[in-house]
UniProtKB/TrEMBL annotation:
Pfam families: GyrI-like, HTH_18. SMART domains: AraC_E_bind, HTH_ARAC. This is AraC family transcriptional regulator. Coiled coil: none annotated. It comes from the Bacteria. One of its GO terms (molecular function) is DNA-binding transcription factor activity. It comes from Desulfosporosinus hippei DSM 8344.
Length: 277
């Protein structure tokens, strides 16, 4: 868990400005620290240098767009992250061990390997099957207590247990438990996935780790099934529904809103929410 307030603020800053030329100095200045001191703190808390973190996110976020924005050229997507065509191809291949063209071609598929269960293949449904379960909704902002993690989603169960125990005094009948995810585990190394676990709270909460999750327009899919099948459904929505719909993913990040959890039987009902425009 990342407990350093300034590191979390710097990550938020990087996320908001990922389509710009961000320097290590920019990040350190935003947090009002010297470049050398803050670089050391950032690497200590995240396991990566600021420069490596920014570069990795640019490569991984651009890969998501290659997968979901079929009609946008590779050159334009690379340019959105500050790369010339040749530099983007070189940087992408170095990070993903495949060219952007080959990656886009390979993503046009009906199944992918399951990163959390290596013996399984995630097989997708048709566009029509996803589309009949998706509602386009305007969600309000959420004021939440949050904790930020970098690591494997397989650890979510334990992290959620610890989180709800720590903040059980804030749990009410209408409290929502929400995950905010920043990475696609079919693209990002599973041990480097960034995510927030959150619970809604009223405006009088005086804790330091309170933030607002931006609402807006979302494509909402009601998932009702086993925990291990969440990845399959999410990938199907991205690879099939979003890629061939009339929508584009917005710069906000995906949310999972829990409606019911049966830990004993590993069954969950939740809304998978994709920000769209």
């Amino acid at each position: 868990m990342i407990t350093n307030q300034w590191v979390n603020q710097s990550i938020d800053y990087i996320m908001r400005h990922l389509d710009e030329e961000i320097s290590v100095e920019d990040v350190a200045d935003h947090c009002h620290f010297s470049k050398y001191y803050f670089s050391r703190v950032f690497k200590e808390k995240t396991g990566e240098s600021i420069y490596a973190f920014i570069k990795r996110l640019k490569m991984e976020h651009s890969a998501v767009r290659l997968k979901t924005e079929k009609d946008k050229s590779i050159t334009d997507i690379g340019s959105d992250y500050g790369y010339s065509p040749s530099n983007y191809c070189s940087a992408f291949r170095k990070h993903h061990n495949i060219s952007p063209t080959e990656f886009r071609k390979d993503s046009n598929t009906t199944c992918v390997p399951h990163p959390f269960y290596p013996d399984k293949i995630a097989r997708f449904q048709s566009f029509a099957e996803y589309d009949q379960h998706i509602l386009i909704q305007e969600l309000d902002d959420f004021l939440v207590i949050y904790e930020r993690h970098i690591g494997n989603y397989i650890e979510l169960g334990k992290n959620w247990h610890d989180f709800t125990e720590k903040y059980k005094e804030y749990l009410k009948e209408d409290t929502l438990l929400i995950e905010r995810s920043y990475h696609d585990p079919s693209i990002t190394n599973v041990d480097q996935c960034l995510y927030d676990i959150c619970m809604t709270v009223d405006e009088n909460c005086s804790l330091d780790n309170v933030t607002t999750i931006q609402g807006g327009k979302f494509a909402v899919y009601r998932f009702d099934g086993l925990i291990e099948d969440i990845f399959v459904t999410f990938q199907g929505i991205f690879n099939i529904w979003l890629a061939y719909s009339d929508y584009v993913m917005d710069e906000r990040y995906g949310l999972d809103i829990y409606r019911n959890v049966d830990r004993e039987n590993r069954h969950v009902v939740m809304d998978l929410c994709i920000p769209i425009k």
